[in-house]
């Protein structure tokens, strides 16, 4: 994800400082995102999706399809549902978020 954030930021000729202002974090935090030392919140990923005109999946490195408009109808619906989930996740504290992620990973792995 860090490489995608850096690539998209540089494509817009945006500095880390400018992106930090858009995300409401420090420049050091943006640097840490790009180096994958820290990860942005779901709310920040949503901001980047709008700012970069790129799908959440693309930013997160889950898809090579950059533009949401080229998704199939099902993919667009999934993306809308994911955006709702991401918006709700912005209200969780770090421990709650980690529990949700662990549960979701268990579902993906067939353990739940």
Describe what you observe in this structure:
This protein has 112 residues and is an all-alpha fold. The protein has a single domain, classed as lambda repressor-like DNA-binding domains (434 Repressor (Amino-terminal Domain)), CATH 1.10.260. 65% of the residues lie in helices and 0% in strands. The chain has 7 helices and no strands. The longest helix has 17 residues, at 73-89. The chain starts with a helix and ends with a helix.
**How many discrete domains?**
1
CATH architectural category? Orthogonal Bundle
Strand content: under 5%
| Class by alpha and beta content | mainly alpha
Low-confidence segments, given as residue ranges, are none
CATH superfamily: lambda repressor-like DNA-binding domains
Helix count, per DSSP? 7
Shape: globular
CATH class: Mainly Alpha
Remind me, CATH topology? 434 Repressor (Amino-terminal Domain)
Kindly state the percentage of residues in helix.
Answer: 55-70%
